[in-house]
Amino acid sequence: MKKKIAILGSTGSIGKTLFNIIKKNKKNFEIVLLSADENYKELLKQAKFFKVKNLIITNENSYNKLKKNRFSKNINVYNDFNKFRKIFKKKVDYTMSSISGIQGLKPTIEIIKYTKKIAIANKEAIICGWDLIEKKLNKHKTKFVPVDSEHFSIWYALQDIEKSLIEKIYLTASGGPFLEKSLKKLKKVNINQVINHPNWKMGKKISTDSATMINKVFEVIEAKKIFKISYNKLAIMIHPKSYVHAIIKLKNGLTKIVVHDTNMKIPIFNSLYSSKKIINSKKLDFKTLNNLDFRDVNPRKFPLIKVLKILPNNTSLFETILVSINDKFVELFLKNRIKFTDISKKMNKMLNSYSLKKYKKIKPKNIEEIIKMNTKIKNDIEYLITK
User: Fold this and answer.
1) What's the total number of domains in the chain?
2) Residue 12's Cα: distance from chain center in Å?
3) How far apart are CA 86 and CA 75, in angstroms?
4) So what's the pLDDT on residue 275?
5) Same domain membership, residue 129 and residue 187
6) What is the pLDDT of residue 283?
């Protein structure tokens, strides 16, 4: 029997990696739904290959272009995510949620009831709305697998391990493109230098987050929520080769180190298949293992790491504020409206402001509250920058 799957964000890097994995075993899969924002040409290409009957494309202009295509007359093309009930007659076997940004939160939560298993690669959804996601997972008995390489590695290593046995979990960070660059030179870096990640091929936004290391702050928050572990048991270590993805120190004296190729194929493949399925991977790299080169994070070079000291232990709207502020300042940088070093400088100043501290005690009740806060913060920053 074919495995029925849905891919939210199928034209992004995660979606494409999953698509390429299932292409090799086409006869074993039926894709019920594909979605994208703007890239209607790639979406159509994917739909033709797998004869997909349902597409969602959220960009209005791309939606209109797709609707005019001759091939689209034989399929259902929608412009938003409000048609899940119409698309899914029964639960699919697997869903990948890889829509980037906070706009991925609502579809991620709403598709849970229509799938037996969901792999989530959307940081913002987990950071801002994990309580809402977890509630839905439990209600609809849907299995969850994290897909970020670090969180997948932790999830894999902690199987059959009691949480009380955990002494410390270390998440690794490459250090990005400026690990060896002086602080003085960082003031003059351009967009091309920022997005030129040494190990991973990623989009502009996530590459910028890696360069400031806010992505690791986000990953610590994710790990805290997913694995229900306190911040004092989580730490970040710089590991330039990105070969080790997680280190779990246990109280019984043992330590687990999870290593895999520097690509997203491994966690995505293992989220789709059982652990008994075989994948072709590179031979163990003993040269790298002989020189793992772990380093502490320098807070002067990566000042956004200080954010970890001001995070509330409880779930709050402050996490949404953090994501929203970062999204907006990265957007401003990528539009050449602020300098690279302004991202961390302005973020730290804003996050430490008295006016935002009250949100550390306010827990989001629903998706709408999170989206409303996201919009407000971004509008406030735009107003201040323009002014």
Assistant:
1) 3
2) 12
3) 13
4) 66
5) no
6) 93
- The answer to whether 371 touches 378, Cβ cutoff 8 Å, is no
CA distance linking residue 100 with residue 239, whole number of Å: 25
Residue 329: half-sphere exposure toward Cβ, Cα within 13 Å: 24
> What pTM was estimated for this model as a whole?
0.95
Contact 149/269 with Cβ under 8 angstroms? Answer: no
Q: Say yes or no: 70 and 107 in one domain.
A: yes
Q: Which of 308, 342, 363 is the last residue of a domain?
A: 308
Residue 31 belongs to a domain with what CATH number?
3.40.50.720
Of 155, 200, 154, 152, give the one whose Cα is nearest residue 175: 200
Q: What is d(CA 259, CA 263) in angstroms, rounded to the nearest whole number? A: 11
Interhelix angle 318-334/340-351, nearest 10 degrees: 160
> Could you tell me the two tokens for 224?
């805290």
Residues of the chain with pLDDT under 70: 275
Q: Are residues 299 and 335 in the same domain?
A: no
Rounded CA-CA distance 125/136 in Å is: 13
**Alpha carbons 327 and 128: distance in angstroms, whole number:** 13
